[in-house]
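User: Round two. Same drill as before: sequence, then structure, for each protein.

Assistant: Same drill it is. First protein:
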Amino acid sequence: MATTTIRIDHDNQTVTFPETEVSDELVVQLFDDTSAAEREELYDDILRIGAYAHLEDRIGAFLAKTAERIGGEFEYLKLLFEARKRSMATTEKGAIAEDDVEQALKALVTDRGWEDSIVPTGNSGGELSGGTNKTGDLLACIGGVDGPRLVLEVKFDKSINLGDLADAKHEQNRKDTAWSQLVEAAANRKAGLSMIVFDKGSASSDIKKKVRDVTWLPGAGLAVMVDPERGDYRNLEVAYGFARALLLATARPELDTELLSVVVSRALREVQRCLEAQGHVDTIVGSACALLADLEQSNAALSSIQELLETVDAEHPLTGKDLFALHEGEDVRAAIDRVEKELNDLVEKRLSEVS
């Protein structure tokens, strides 16, 4: 595009662009995934965001550094992220959430060597409303298809509050609550226990206040908070293991259910304490890793400076090339990459030992 074809009207504070054609793959992909009615607004957003990014040195430096380290893979990652973000803002969100939870449970079952069956049921009717009620997104059969049944309802949105036994859906303006969904799901899927899974990023303030990790809703079942943006389903894994053990225990006729409820309450309290402690440990480990990475970077930089100074004397003066090499910091970058890999390997090894 010739620069003379771009006209600026200072009086009206506007810029006029001519018709143009762009062959960039990222641009084509972005506009192709956007409806025709929204493309003009998207075009305006891109111009504005691009202008901010170009004028903002920090953003420019970040993009330059990122491009230098991972190049074209970053562009592909951005495309995937944008596609995922757009999907999570549409009707596809429910299906994606259910699939994520299903895959997390199947991975857990495989890792533990259990024979549990995990089946998606959100698109099929159950026992209620003449077989048309679809409440209950996943059904887990403990030990196989004939074992005790755990039903899971996945709610990754802000449209639901926790609720309690006192709520009555037939009253005017009453909506579904987590409590009512748990009760309904259990009845609809003929399950001995039900669980509802929330997303930390989109749950209502009411849910976030009352469900920090795993919470027991008396008379209903378990409420679990996960963090899919970080790929963190540890709370779900803990809750599923707890629910599984509870279902296997209640299947034994010789157990007193009242005594069992006391044990369940105590066990759940300890589960919550363990999850809180794990969160504190994760924070401490993350901070320690960041400090170690900073120390390694400083040590590597000091080593490079020391090596440079040792080569400087009357016959070998400091040159611009030496300063440029120091500025580039190849040794420092190599040390950062190495220590990051070592720390990540150490953390992964520790987590695998704990699990």
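Second protein:
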Amino acid sequence: MRAATTDDLASCHRVWLATEPTPTATEPTLSPPRVLPLHRHELDTGRLVVADLEGVIVGFGATLTRSGVAYVADLFVTPDHQSHGIGARLLHALLDDHDGPRFTLASTDPRARALYERFGMHPVGEYAYLRAHPNDVVPDRLDSDGVVLDVTALIDEIIDIDRAVTGRDRRVDLVHAEARLGARTFRARRNSRTVGYAQVVHPIWWSPTHPDAVRIGPIIATEQRELLTILAAVTAEAASLQTTSLGPFVPVGGPAYAAMIRAGFVEEDRDLLMVSDPSLVDVDRYLPAVDTA
């Protein structure tokens, strides 16, 4: 295990691609290894560690620590090197000197759950990756209840809203999404009152199966009742973009999940939210994006 360097970033992409499902005949071919913006962001603003086996990178892991809270943003091992303790060694390298809270969005694979539990994280609930073509979305089943979106918000106001709900200063992550991913950040308002914010990223070119998709999230609401209305408003905004795929990320079994399914979305995959402290993530006012969590 060693700290990653710039020269390792393309290898990290290769490892990640090796763990992705093989595309079907109707899906685009997996892109060749390159440098992904998340991996660069992890190297520049977090901790990125690689498992180097005689000069070949066979796994990597990363944490983004904000305001004393460590988010395990990545942990991947190539399929032929899994179940050999490499994931555990990567987590030791990332977390052994971190005494504060930690969380991750893990695979639902029981092996992943057991591994993260060894490092003090416990399951809170599953989150679903939902997909829909804009033409398949039924707008009447998404009610924004008068919430409007404003793209003229100052970033400092967005940071203040985000910090109030997450308890973390994530300026570097939200600015990164705008500068490197082309995210649009919307302030959500009801009349003249700010009730939250949402980010939309288009296209998510680094996705091996949905390179032209729209990423909806993160979304923060100042009050629980506004989370669903902001999601409805930003989904309508995203549906106006030139894309074949809209991709929100919502907790399974919650009102947002039910509303999106009614509106025509289908579930594509799931992750498991695991935290060291159940109060760490406010699931009633916060919809994460895996790239920033």
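Residues 226-239 form the longest helix (14 residues).

User: Perfect.
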